[in-house]
Amino acid sequence: MSIRRIATLVVALLWSTSCLARLSEPQWSTPRKDSALNFQWGVKIPMRDGVKLNATMYQPLGQRSPLPCIFTLTPYISQTYHDRGMYFASHGYVFLAIDSRGRGNSEGTFTPLLQEAKDGHDVVEWLAKQSYCNGKVAMWGGSYSGYDQWATAKEFPPHLATIIPVASPRPGVDFPGVNNIPYSYDMQWLLTVAGHTLQESILGDDGFWKAQLDEMYLYNRPFRQLDAMVGYPSESFQTWVAHPAVDSYWDSYNPTPQQFAKIDLPILTITGQYDDDQPGALSFYREAFRYGSTAAKAKHYLIIGPWDHFATRTPDAEYGGIEFGKSALIDMNQLIKNWYDWTMKAGPKPGFLKNKVTYYLFGDGIGQWRYARSLEAVTEKKKPMYLSSSGNNADSIFASGALIANRPQGKNNLDRYIYDPLDTKSTWDPEGDGSENDFLTDATELIGLSGSRKLLVYQTPAFENDIDLAGFFNLSAWISLDQPDTDIAATIYEITPDGRSQMLTLSTMRARYRHSPRKATFVHPGSIELYDFDHFRFIARHIAKGSRLRLVIGPVNSRNYEKNYNNNGVVADESAKDARTVTVTLYHDTQYPSALYLPIAAPSEFH
User: Which helix (H) or strand (E) is 501 found in, with range?
Assistant: First the structure.
């Protein structure tokens, strides 16, 4: 996953030619057939305030007439898009890889994310006036360069013809944290893009970063001090930490409802089931459909592959120990070119896009692309499975609680786990240990914690028939705390008939934001409230007969996140002296029927 796995990938590829590319733009899987192109390094593009951005330009050899232009605006240095430029220029487009303001050879000061809207607008309009451009300008890119397409679109440059935002984070949704829980990786990323060059060796030094994050996590240093601890005091980091809730600051990065209503472009949104920026990508997509016009929605298509963050651009058939099947290896470069041909050259619509939503269903040797008229239509119905346990004992994968079809009966049926934020010896990371290749299938941590009263486990009976799940799980859990706050994770796994575990999806929650990400409401200790975990990531899985589902509920206790000390202060300022041990009680009886809702897949639609 991008937030967790970048450093590991860089270590493996540190001195290879593809190292830099995988930070933002993986290499094309298809070799180039024609490298005889016109190439120009150091093209200077003036912004409205006089700052000049640096671009590398690729053109078809001997271009005789104006063509559509495609550009990427990236903080990861323009050379990381070299192969992309070569590909598009050899297929009838002018391509420019552009260093973000203050990065690479561009002038100005780099202010992460917030600067790209106006700069993107100015690039579009400058390109439209050049002799080699026919007035149609498109954008391309993933991750950061997916976000800046949405940022540019909200400025409404007249000559922007289409965008393809891939694996786009959304500030305030999944970056610099998820569900109001900040990532420790924030500082690792900020240091990577410090100055003008790419700090890839620092990024890839696992030992260095483990020591820095251990200093914070094991010795309970305040999260706000992380930038000073790593030796890079950062104004951006301090600004982010100062806005723990979604507010007008985070709103300023993104289109407003009024701007979404005015965006009228062909858009192809791409994400993956294991893309940790899926929440951001789908948040943009949903709001475009919530506020957009009928005409705009008719031009907006969505692809959700099985992939992780990087494979949204160069698909892989495996991730984290889970195999997707060869059908997942679509020719992404051809698909993107076909989209540009359709939207800017009056070519046919890409045949791959058989309906408005294209998603990949896999599991138990099955891998197939399926289609729906909308994201909601992917799911036929939600099937409730009610949480239950015998003897209030649900803290082991060997003697777990149950997920049952019938509503629970009785009174005072409950389970508890205890979370001490100062206990760092036996912890569970809801996303798995990203340092291992099979981290999505490794149940070692859960096995070690069985019977420890540090988490809760519920499992379905083995399915009597095959079942297809597609869409979003929901968990409605009746919970009480004896402290004013805590962080809770709910993670869902498939357990195959031979006992193998595969992580499917997860949702996290900071209790003070259980009602709204915009306002902290501290818990009244002892009160029983309904906690709706409705931020699970999209999945599409074929679950074979004999498999079961496992739900694990526990604390977010990892060096990869800001630690919550279960108090009612400013979390970023808290340390060991503020720590409170919390008891989390989950109810499942007639009065409080906690339930996990399974998304049952609808039949595939082609029209």
Answer: strand 501-510
DSSP 8-state symbol, 509 = E
Amino acid identity of 436?
A: E
Two structure tokens written together for 298: 């008719």
Tokens of 121: 């607008």
Residue 432 confidence class, pLDDT cut points 50, 70, 90: low
CB atoms inside a 10 Å sphere around CB 68? 23
pTM of this structure: 0.94
Give me the number of domains the chain comprises.
Answer: 2
Question: Residue 384: which CATH number?
Answer: 2.60.120.260
- β-pairing, 165-166 vs 141-142, is parallel
Give Cβ neighbours of residue 50 (< 8 Å, ≥ 6 apart). none
337, 462: one domain: no
Residue among 85, 216, 77, 177 at smallest CA distance from 575: 216
Better-predicted residue by pLDDT, 582 or 451: 582
| Local structure of residue 572 (DSSP, 8 states) | G
- 75 vs 2, more confident: 75
Taking the C-alpha atoms of residue 544 and residue 464, their distance in angstroms, rounded to an integer, is 9
Q: Averaged over 358-374, what is the pLDDT?
A: 96
Computed over every residue of the chain, the mean pLDDT equals: 91
Give the end-to-end CA distance of the chain in Å, rounded to a whole number. 33
Say how far apart CA 490 and CA 505 lie, in whole Å: 9
Band (412; pLDDT cuts 50, 70, 90): confident
Q: Are 479 and 567 contained in the same domain?
A: yes
